[in-house]
Structures are given as structure tokens and as C-alpha cells.
Amino acid sequence: MTWRVTVRSGPRVEKRSAADLAEALALLEHEARALAAGPRRREVRLRHRAFTPQQQVASRVELDGPGVRAGVDVRGDGATEAWTGRVRRRLVEPAARESPYEALARALGQSTSAEP
């Protein structure tokens, strides 16, 4: 089965493929960490409203595979949050000391631990 990883950052869209879920999750994490380390966004002010960097999704890395649609949003301040869902996105809350990437792997049933 082929997994697709789509990286969206501004007008740039890149599509990559992975052979399995573990490879796709590793690729997703690599891309999202690189985007999170990039430049930060400034506050955007409109006529009656302002959007802080924390409220802006600066980039998105999506994972699409057999029966799975998930991803990681990179906020304007560099923070990341994982989500799942095709039609409606549901945030994946990390457990104690768990990264958003580990939380996403857990939600998708894929262990990131080297221990059995």
C-alpha cells in the first residue's frame, strides 16, 4: 500500500510517497520539524479582528493512506499539533511527555517505541 505525505507551506505544495505507515510517519515528522524551525509569523490585523501567530496555521503536513487521513499543523509561532479525520479534523491530545508526532502515531495504532 502506498502512503502519501503532502507538505503545504504557503503556496508551495509537495507530494511524497512512502511504502508503509512507519515510513510515512517518519517523513511527516521530518518535514514538520523542518517547517517548525523556520521563520515565525507576525500578528495579522484585519479591520475588526487580529490573528496572533498561535492562531495561524503556517504550514500543514498531511498523511493520506488506506482509510487514514491525518496530519500535523505548524502554527505561526512554531508550535505543532496533530489531528485526524477526513471531513472534520479532531485534535490528537498528547499524553504526558508525548510529542505531537508520538501522539499521532499512537492515534493511528503505530508504536514509535523500540521496546515491544
Order of helices and strands: EEHEEEEEEH
Radius of gyration, rounded?
15 Å
In total, the number of strands is 8
In this structure, how is the largest beta sheet organized? 6 strands, antiparallel
Please state the structural category: alpha+beta
**Apparent shape:** globular
In terms of per-residue confidence, which ranges show pLDDT below 50 for 5 or more consecutive residues? 111-116
When the domains are counted, the total is 1
Element layout with pairings:
Layout: E1 3-9, E2 12-18, H1 21-36, E3 44-45, E4 50-51, E5 57-65, E6 68-75, E7 80-84, E8 90-92, H2 100-107
Antiparallel strand pairs: 1-2, 1-5, 3-4, 5-6, 6-7, 7-8
Account of the 3D structure:
The chain has one domain. The C terminus is likely disordered. It is built from 2 helices and 8 strands. It has 116 residues and is an alpha+beta fold. The strands form 2 sheets. A 6-stranded antiparallel beta sheet has the order 2-1-5-6-7-8, covered by helices on one side. A two-stranded antiparallel ribbon has the order 3-4.
What's this, in brief?
The protein is an alpha+beta fold. It has two helices and eight strands.
Name its key features:
alpha+beta; 6-stranded antiparallel sheet; 2 helices; disordered C terminus
